[in-house]
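Subgroup meeting minutes
Present: P.N., E.W., G.H.
Scribe: E.W.

1. P.N. recapped why we're keeping a running log of single-chain structure predictions: easier to compare across weeks, and new members can see raw inputs and outputs side by side.
2. G.H. added today's entry (207 aa).
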Amino acid sequence: MFPNAFYYWRPHPWHGLECGPNPPELVTAYIEITTFDSVKFEIDKITGYVRVDRPQRASSLPPTLYGFIPRTYCGPRVAALNPVVDKADGDPLDICVISERPINRAEILLTTKVIGGIQLVDHGEADDKIVAVLANDLVWADIDDIEHLPHVLIERLTHYFKTYKMIEGEEEATFVNQVYSVDYAHQVVQASIYDYQQIYGLDQPRH
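Output recorded in log:
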């Protein structure tokens, strides 16, 4: 007899997993891209499998692990926290995870501690990037706020998101409005959970 945690089918990474053990402070991150990837991978919203979105045009690699928080949605509540937009992008909430040890594989789950975020605007829509640390990391786990990170790491993150969709000869479509602290990040995470519940009406993950 299989234990209760056994699934006959693989849960959808966005809808079938919990958003974390203690959100908005401790959240689950589903990783789509590692720091070694020069191709933009993205979850397919219908099947739940990871697909190739596009090869990255620029030569820079993601400074951190990159993915999303399950059972979140960037909708009107997330947009309301952004002073320069009227709508959000309608995707799960993105998350960047800092780990001292290199992690070179994607499609994994991490328990992470939220420490801040980047208020990115993409084509006029809120596209926030939560910044977190691996919860049991031996180097970074004691960091409680993004302001305690080395400045160069924040600089690399903001530069990556400013340029990762840049096309030569075209007007820039993305910009960073601000880098925000842990308290504001908690508000964004909580807003994205409420937005998800309003859209999908799920209180518990489906097994």
